[in-house]
Design a protein that fits this description.
The complex is a heterodimer of chains A (286) and B (52).
Chain A: H1 2-40, H2 46-59, H3 61-66, H4 75-78, H5 81-96, H6 101-118, E1 121-124, E2 129-132, H7 136-171, H8 175-186, H9 202-228, H10 230-236, H11 238-285
Antiparallel strand pairs in A: 1-2
Helix pairs in contact in A: 1-7, 1-9, 2-5, 2-6, 7-8, 7-9, 7-11, 8-11, 9-11, 10-11
Chain B: H1 2-10, H2 12-40, H3 42-51
Classes of the chains: A mainly alpha (286), B mainly alpha (52).
Chain lengths: 286, 52
């Protein structure tokens, strides 16, 4: 009977670890998808720059076609340095790629289509659906809150399981059993948010906590970017912007609280792991 | 304010990539400094309170 109970306890500890690990992978995937969405929407991201230079080529196409390379740029384009630079870059790109007006037009249309499909819409992996880039804050805030909330419970569960089994092993007198049981339990350690007194490199010690701070940090950046691009978004829909800001502020606060709770629970779990490791070392040195 | 906004938008890729790497480390360090030490060393805190 006791053997069955012990096996069940170890199984549950392993399951709890597996749950936490799966949630960490999901968290990392969501962070990457959200960051890619943010990255593509940058004003000076590569896609936007390509669209801009192709747009300039279309704008100055009549001049570029007349300008064979040996003669100087048309006088009206040389008056403003910024316009002249735009024209020179557009001309260079056009000539370097051996474009003709038809090919340039085709490339420009393809680029705009690609921008609409991949920049203005964020595709969610596995779900075969997409959402508008302006809703990135709301969708990612909701997603991160949900994942952190589930992670918090999974970590609590893991902490309780490890605590119960560690206490059980400690209460036993058989040294061989204790050695094996501690070793078995220690295999379930994943991304420990270490306590201050653990001896290891400072950066490595901090990495797990850094990973837990990633969703909040990313959301902070998305919210910051939304603030910076207020003028652009306002031109599309002012009520939409206000609603988005209010919801984002709520999610930002929620994410901060959830992350702090997760770090707190992880630290408590680390203290239990530290005890288990100490006991294990004592037994090995005996 | 507008100058800061324009500057940040001009170098948005660089600033936000740096932010994505640096912010979790900054937040983690801040948490450690403000709350973390108290939470991770409860015995020391208890002793300090008892001494007072």
């Amino acid at each position: 009977m006791e053997e069955l109970l012990v096996k069940e306890l170890f199984d549950r500890a392993a399951n709890a670890s597996r749950n936490v690990r799966s949630l960490q992978v999901t968290m990392a995937t969501c962070c990457i998808v959200a960051f890619l969405g943010l990255y593509n929407s940058f004003q000076y991201g590569w896609i936007q720059n390509r669209v801009r230079i192709h747009g300039n080529q279309m704008k100055y196409l009549s001049y570029i076609e007349k300008d064979t390379g040996s003669c100087t740029a048309p006088l009206e384009l040389t008056k403003t340095p910024a316009i002249f630079e735009e024209y020179t870059n557009a001309k260079k790109y056009y000539q370097d790629h051996f474009y003709t007006p038809e090919i340039l037009h085709q490339h420009y249309v393809n680029l705009l289509k690609s921008k609409n499909d991949n920049v203005l819409l964020v595709k969610i992996p596995f779900f075969n659906t997409a959402f508008d880039i302006n809703d990135l804050a709301i969708i990612s805030g909701f997603g991160f809150s949900l994942i952190l909330f589930i992670s918090l419970y999974a970590l609590h569960m893991k902490k309780n399981q490890v605590n119960v089994i560690a206490d059980y092993i400690k209460s036993k007198d058989d040294t061989t059993f204790k050695k094996l049981a501690y070793s078995l339990l220690l295999t379930n350690q994943i991304l420990m948010v270490n306590v201050n007194n653990i001896q290891s490199f400072r950066i490595i010690r901090r990495l797990p906590a850094v990973i837990y701070w990633m969703p909040f940090s990313l959301f902070f950046l998305i919210f910051g970017h939304d603030m910076l691009t207020y003028e652009k978004a306002k031109a599309i829909s002012l009520p939409g912007v206000i609603v988005s800001y209010i919801i984002s502020a709520v999610f930002l606060f929620t994410l901060l609280i959830l992350t702090m709770l997760i770090i707190n629970t992880s630290t408590q779990l680390s203290i239990i792991w530290k005890d288990v490791e100490t006991e294990n070392k004592k037994l090995i040195n005996q | 304010m507008n100058i800061i906004r324009d500057f940040m938008l001009s170098y948005d890729s660089a600033i936000f990539i740096a932010g994505f790497i640096a912010l979790p480390i900054i937040f983690s360090s801040l948490y450690d400094k403000i709350i973390g030490k108290v939470r991770s060393q409860p015995e020391k805190v208890k002793t300090k309170i008892q001494k007072k």
